[in-house]
Amino acid sequence: MKSQPECFSCLYGQALKTSRLLNLPDEQCKAVLDRAAQILQAHTLDSTAPQIAKEIYQAISDVTGIDDPVEEAKQIAIRQVQMIDTSQITSLDDALKLSVIGNVIDFGAPNQFNLQATVESHFKEPFARNDIEKLEADLQSASSLVLIGDNVGEHIFDLHLLKVIKQQYPHLKLSFFVRGKPVINDVTLKEAEIFTGTAEVIDSGVATPGYDLSEVNQRSFEIFKEADIVLAKGMGNFESLFQQTPRDVYYLFIVKCQVIANAINQSVKDMILWKEEID
């Protein structure tokens, strides 16, 4: 999905937000912003927001010497999610909804939402786009499923979703894709250790906050192509795959910015479970 001018403003703001999170001195903060401005100037609207974000966060690491600049934000998100009781979430519909609500945990989004408040306000609300009947039909005949992860914290809800799917469809081989290195607050191998015993964790090879097909490693791409079902969590994966994927993909996310809302003719805060079907 191509970027919009608003994406450039958002990405520049992320550079400042991360600098302040790290309590950088003003001169170092200015150096980060200068690098971000150079990166933004070098890109056209043909680039996706995740592709640009990759370069900006690498620049932040280069300036600061910190490999994972938002590690603190990740730990806060994990603690927030651990406070949510998932013991009563046993149906596929509810597990999907909780997983999508968890998508509000996004350091890179222009709009930030309180997790507990969103659970309370959204859990009884319907999906704005809801292809659960298609998903249930696909699950009946599937032998393999891939969930492409997004942010740390929400990955705990993703694990619960996969456990519910595994309980209902025990024959399924499950895989969970993570980023190849830290970028924004996206899930990596380090945080995905909790999936052991439920799903095989796959390093996708990408350093972008989205499953960018130009960067993926061969192993993850083969699994992606051959899986019977692919669930792509979050706006970054949507921005990377929408109208670019060679196969059907289910998108699961909550709309967190007007650019995405306009692109899919929905509203900010809408919950999405939508199958993009390739002719």
UniProtKB/TrEMBL annotation:
Residue span(s) of domain Damage-control phosphatase ARMT1-like metal-binding: 4-270
Domain of life: Bacteria
Protein name: DUF89 family protein
Organism: Thiomicrorhabdus heinhorstiae
Organism taxonomic ancestry: Bacteria, Pseudomonadati, Pseudomonadota, Gammaproteobacteria, Thiotrichales
